[in-house]
Structure formats: C-alpha cells, structure tokens
Amino acid sequence: MKPFLFRRGLLGLLAIVALAGLAACHGEPQPDWRLHDVSGHLPDLDFHLTDDQGKAVTAGDYKGKVTLMYFGYTHCPDVCPLTLTELHVVLDRLGPAADGVRILFVSVDPKRDTPSIMHAYVNAFDKRAVGLVGSDTDTEELAKRYRSAFTREPDKGDGAYDVSHSSAIYIFDRAGKARLLATPSASQDDIVHDLTLLTTLEAHP
Amino acid sequence: MILRSLVATTLLIAGAAAAPVIASAADAAAHAAAASAPAVSATDGWLRVLPGSLPAGGYVTFSNASDSAVSIVGAESGDYADAMIHRSSTAGGMGRMEMVDAVAVPARGTVAFSPGGYHVMLTGAKHPVKAGDAVVVTFDLSDGKKLPVTLLARPANATGPKD
Fold first, then answer.
1. CATH class for the region spanning A33-196
2. Measured between alpha carbons, how far is B60 from A27 in angstroms, rounded to an integer?
C-alpha cells in the first residue's frame, strides 16, 4: 500500500519536474497540490517568539526549511497529540526529505506553556518539532495574521481550563511563503504527497 | 480476537439460559453466570502518556452484548486524581473539547473511544506513568455496574493500542 502510493508520488514528482522544464519560460509551474493551495492568499511566515530552548527566534531562523505551523497547547490531551502524531508519521514517511522540514508548534496557552514544558512536549512526538511561545499579544497577533482563532474556555473551577483553537496546519516553503493549508480531515497520503513536492521543488528553485 | 471469543462465550451462555430444557447443575451454573455477566465489555484499551504532569487521553472500544443500550456515565482511576469523559471535535476548523455526561453503547453494538473523538481525560497522575505501564480505569455504566478496564500506557506519538 505505502510503497505503491510512494511510487505514485514519485511518478507525480517526475511529471512535475518534467513540466517544470517545459514551463521554464512560461513562469512558475503549477504543482498538482492535493491540499488547499493558499499561495498569495496568506502572508509570509513572520513572528517574534521564544523557542523551546528559551531562545528568541524569528521566522528568519527557519529560512531554508519547509515549515508546518500548528497552533495548540500542551494541556490538550487528545486533538493536539493526534495532530502532532500524524505529522510525525508523515515526516517518517517522507524519509530523508524530512530533514528539510520543521514542525512549528505555537502555544495558544502561553500562561501555562513554558519553553521547558514545550520542549518535553514536542520532543515526545518528533525531534523535528519546535515549540514556540510568546506573550499573549504576540501569540494573538500571529494567530490573527493567519486568520486562526483561539478561545480560552471558562475555568473548570480548579484552575484547569481548555483552549479551543483553530486546527489547521499552515505550510510554508523554504523562503517562508505560505503555500498550503491542511485541514484536520486531510489524509496523511495527501500531506506526504504535497510535502514531497514542496521539499523537492524548493531544493531546485 | 479476545473480544470475539468473549462475545461468543456470552452468546453461548445466553443460548443455554434461553433454552432451559434439561435442568442440570451445569445449566444452573451457566444461568447464574449469565445473570451476573456484565453486558458491556472492553477491548484495545490504551492511554497516551504526555510528559510531566500533563493530562493523558485514554481510549478503549466498548461492546454491548445485551439487547438494550447501556451508557458509559462516568470513570475513575486509582492512578489519577480525576477521570472525565470528553469528546473532541474539529467542527468548523476549531479544535475543542467538551464534557460528556453519557456515551451510549448500542444494543448488540460497539462504541469506540478514539483519538479526535470520545476519550477519558486523566488528570493529576498520583505517580509517574510511563509507556508500558498498565493503568486501570473503572467505568460507571448506566445499568449500575462498574467495568474495570486495563489501559496500556503508550508513548506520546503512538497511533493506537499497538504498533
């Protein structure tokens, strides 16, 4: 099953490469994306946050990597782990190309998510994942820029609370341009397919 | 596999109880077993261990061998301070969780607690729980019975009860 799909992905890739050659003098080729193509519809990757090592980082620190940005929080026992696990499986299926990909897990719960908690959390899923935290304002601004949304739900009485948050995965190319949007219903095959294209296309611009 | 044989056993016992033609000691014993056998059984229980003291999500498939619906109405575990039944949804592109009072297991049917849907949220681990550990969660059923289920603790990035 997987090898077959992978082969199909490779064939698609070869077709794209061939098309890219043909289309060289007609501007950029249009890859056969399976996810939502958001090129030109969402702003470039841009943020000032703190990574899970406690270091101040900006989008520029991830130039050269394809990035998968996802908003979530560590006290989220179900949906966030499900998404991060799926991304981990996807990156494993990508093979060596996954070295050129980073998962950016942005906390929508900066009150509880310290860099060290984020570090333990993201690394429990994938070594290519980076946990990012910021002030309430920085986080809100970032979410707003990508038309993402999050709401802190009412306190459950013992200080525990949930955060409802946008569940989309924003995919940026190596230059930090927004390219694709994966919704929770996207299949792993489709994400693998598109990341294979994106990492390869960008390797030979 | 275990589920199938359990259901088969229950059906056999039910069959024996429904046809009390030959009254023997063995039949009487079978009848008694049928009367006390819980209608709901559980398989493929696991939980996702997250670092530190973060809450864990528990998953399990319930099967109801009886002719009437039974609901899961509560949960508790000796290993955690609190166990709550939740449902996640990503309706409208928003990921959210809600508390659930009861989850019906249809007559002669199953319901799965699985990632992205129903789960038992375990908070306040009383001792560190690591992958490979067995955690017992006791579910309260609407018929008044209690169903203890052993959940296998799995790594954060596990995709199910086994690889």
1. alpha beta
2. 53
CATH superfamily of domain region B40-154 = PCu(A)C copper chaperone (2.60.40.1890)
* Contact call for A78 and B121, based on CB within 8 A: yes
Top residue of A74, A76, A78, A114 to mutate, by most chain B CBs within 10 Å, is: A78
- Report the candidate in A128, A203, A137 with the shortest Cα–Cα distance to residue A173: A203
Domain locations along chain B: 2-36, 40-154
CB A179, CB A171: distance < 8 Å: yes
Backbone angles phi, psi at B83, to 5 degrees: -135, 120
- Out of A75, A124, A149, the one facing B156 most closely (by C-beta) is A124
Q: Positive or negative CA dihedral for B85, B89, B94, B100?
A: negative
Per-residue pLDDT tens, chain B, 163 aa: give them.
344 443 333 333 333 333 334 444 555 444 544 455 679 999 999 999 999 989 999 999 999 999 999 999 999 999 999 999 999 987 777 777 788 999 999 999 999 999 999 999 999 999 999 999 999 999 999 999 999 999 999 999 999 999 8
